[in-house]
Amino acid sequence: MANQQPSSGNPRVDVEYRRKKSAEEMRYQIVSFALMIFLTLVAFVAVGYDGFSDWFTVPFILLLAVIQVIFQLYYFMHMSHKGHEAPALFLYSGVVVGAVTILAFTTIIWW
Amino acid sequence: MSTYAQKKGFGATLWDYLTTVDHKKIAILYLIAGGFFFILGGLEALFIRIQLAVPNNDFVSAGFYNEILTMHGTTMIFLAAMPLVFAFMNAVMPLQIGARDVAFPFLNSLGFWLFFFGGVFLNLSWFLGGAPDAGWTSYASLAMASETHGIDFYALGLQISGAGTLIGGINFLVTIINMRAPGMTYMRMPMFTWATFVTSALILFAFPPLTVGLFLMIFDRMFGSNFFDVANGGNTIIWEHLFWIFGHPEVYILILPAFGIFSEIFAIFSRKRLFGYSSMVFATVLIGFLGFMVWAHHMFTTGLGPIANAIFAVATMAIAVPTGIKIFNWMFTMWGGSIKFTTPMLWAVAFIPSFVAGGVTGVMLASAAADYQYHDSYFVVAHFHYVIVGGVVFALFAGAHLYWPKMFGTMLNETLGKVTFWLFLFGFHLTFFIQHFLGLMGMPRRIFTFLPGQGLATGNLISSIGAIFMAIATIVLLINVIMTQVKNEKVGNDPWGDGRTLEWAISSPPPFYNFKQLPLVRGLDAYWLEKMEGKKEMTPAEPLGDIHMPNNSFVPFVISLGLFIAAFGAMYRADTSWGLLVLILGMAVTLGAMFVRSIKDDHGFHIHKEDLMDDDNDKGAKA
């Protein structure tokens, strides 16, 4: 239902409601798009500015990257909509497995 | 088009199977290929037992023994148990959820051919200079030093067949999420379908680490990198972790479908609903989750330190809890049931004590401190054979008898089935029970011989005698299969008489489009529900309409063949002038076939309503 177009010809579509929803959706997308551009600029500034040490810059831009991925998934790939529970479950399971692997590799493997 | 069976020549049948995308035929391909590798792995096991039957034996040399031992483990896990499990998943799961096929029939075929060519490649090592000889775990510190091409065969062959398995797992996941019949909610899915679902999720997350590990090994051995080369700053422990992050979920990938098959059997032959269905689902999911948190228990003696060892020991013991839930549920399913001791039920009943014995030694091994004593002894060998043979192999035998009528339309002979069962059960315990004590007496695993006077002779002789019984049992099963195929007595939809789930509501074997009309599922054990209300067939959930079917395709075979050729190129690139050329040629075949698949539209075909109405007495969903 979420991605049914107002012009679909289905007589049961409430056009007014769809319009309102689409406008709302559009607003979210533009806001998150602007935020993403802003975050990208912040990342460039963080790398370009000499005052920060690498120990700050690297985790900081990684954090920004994670935020961008979340924006991407939830606002542009519609994971915030209904019907995305299974993909979300598998994405998060994958994140957990990957995180445990990285945790193990960084803690109990000696170099 | 006609749906009547026509006599076909051998060539036409062969071509049909080479190009098929039908889940039922792919299941048969998996069964045949897996069965072949099972016999191969079994022969290797017999050679091992012959060599160890008496002290100081020289049946095989030490080096050759290493190869047999490695190939026995690798073949049994990757090329026998996994494909046989896949055979039942393919044959049964789409029917159980009332689907017409899996979600991606083309990929299903591709998955099979990748597995098949990977397996053939691995076994060609016997004829091309020596098989892999560093154990099925192929620890890098040992594998890097191996002088023959054996390890290259291992890494490349498993890489190809692993890709096939990963494709298969994703396919099953999408099928179960998207293609359940109307009314089939998650909590109405049969246990075997749940097991397939969780297993496929495990495959999805467990195989990428193996892929990474194998690529590192391929690069190190064939392309001059140094991931595992300590002298150049590498670390061999990386391989151990990557391997076991895959390897531990792998054993659950094998055992969960076994649990699924047994859950079906207990319910069918106790003629009772499975006890504690929702707790069974919970336990299956929990085992799947915990399966990823315990891999380092294979590495207690690697020097992880006491904290890591303690965490992994506790996590490992926790797995006994959901497994215990399952064991009790199976026993309560039988409790008060009207039990029929058919061949599948015998396997299921024998599975409980056998598997519990393996589970108990598993908890013993999980205690990190005690594990320092058991590590690398025959105690470990006894443990994992008790869980894998007593669990997985029992389930495969049981499943073969249970689902044979659904796959082939004929019943395996019950008397011979029971002969197989008793011989195998007896042989299995005779072979492996004594190995616990051999281990505790200090016999290390993977040794090729022992000396007289070490107190190991009697135990090993008993163990070898047991192996003969298992071999005879397998031969009896083969005779049974041949006899059944020659007699070819067709059976009806529900040959066991007590089928509960949707696959028994359809003819044996089902028509190639499965259900003519998708069935309406009104509860758990959908078919049983209808039978109990006096109905003869499932209520259809849709009017009769055209059915959209995929076309057969030869492309999966070609894609897999290309990788098979490329693997030879990669292996011989360093020592020959033509290696690189073959590598490029093989990749060109694969990428070319993928390109053809991408640009050529293949819309499949429709079976029209009129044709479906013609053979109304052969309805898809009749009871």
Automatic annotation (TrEMBL), chain A:
Keyword line: Cell membrane, Membrane, Oxidoreductase, Transmembrane, Transmembrane helix
Molecular-function GO terms, alphabetical: oxidoreductase activity
Transmembrane domains' residue ranges: 28-49, 55-77, 89-110
Subcellular location(s) of the protein: Cell membrane
Gene Ontology cellular component terms for the protein in this record: plasma membrane
Origin organism lineage: Bacteria, Bacillati, Bacillota, Bacilli, Bacillales
Enzyme Commission code(s) on record: 1.9.3.1
Topology class, membrane: Multi-pass membrane protein
InterPro entries xrefs: Cyt_c_oxidase_su4_bacillaceae, Cyt_c_oxidase_su4_prok
Location (main, coarse): membrane
Protein name as catalogued: Cytochrome c oxidase, subunit IV
UniProtKB/TrEMBL annotation, chain B:
Cofactor: heme; Cu(2+)
Topology of this chain in the membrane: Multi-pass membrane protein
GO cellular component terms, A-Z: plasma membrane
Keyword Transferase: no
PROSITE patterns associated with the record: COX1, COX1_CUB
Subcellular location: Cell membrane
GO molecular function: cytochrome-c oxidase activity; heme binding; metal ion binding; oxidoreductase activity
The reaction(s) this protein catalyses: 4 Fe(II)-[cytochrome c] + O2 + 8 H(+)(in) = 4 Fe(III)-[cytochrome c] + 2 H2O + 4 H(+)(out)
GO biological process: electron transport coupled proton transport; oxidative phosphorylation; respiratory electron transport chain
SUPFAM superfamilies: Cytochrome c oxidase subunit I-like
Residue ranges of the TM segments: 27-48, 68-89, 110-129, 153-179, 191-219, 251-269, 274-295, 307-325, 346-370, 382-404, 416-441, 461-483, 554-572, 578-596
EC number: 7.1.1.9
Pfam families the record matches: COX1
Keywords recorded for this protein, A-Z: Cell membrane, Copper, Electron transport, Heme, Iron, Membrane, Metal-binding, Oxidoreductase, Respiratory chain, Translocase, Transmembrane, Transmembrane helix, Transport
Annotated metabolic or biological route of this protein: Energy metabolism; oxidative phosphorylation
Ranges where the Cytochrome oxidase subunit I profile domain occurs: 9-522
Family the entry assigns: Belongs to the heme-copper respiratory oxidase family.
The protein's role, per its UniProt record: Cytochrome c oxidase is the component of the respiratory chain that catalyzes the reduction of oxygen to water. Subunits 1-3 form the functional core of the enzyme complex. Co I is the catalytic subunit of the enzyme. Electrons originating in cytochrome c are transferred via the copper A center of subunit 2 and heme a of subunit 1 to the bimetallic center formed by heme a3 and copper B. This cytochrome c oxidase shows proton pump activity across the membrane in addition to the electron transfer.
Protein name: Cytochrome c oxidase subunit 1
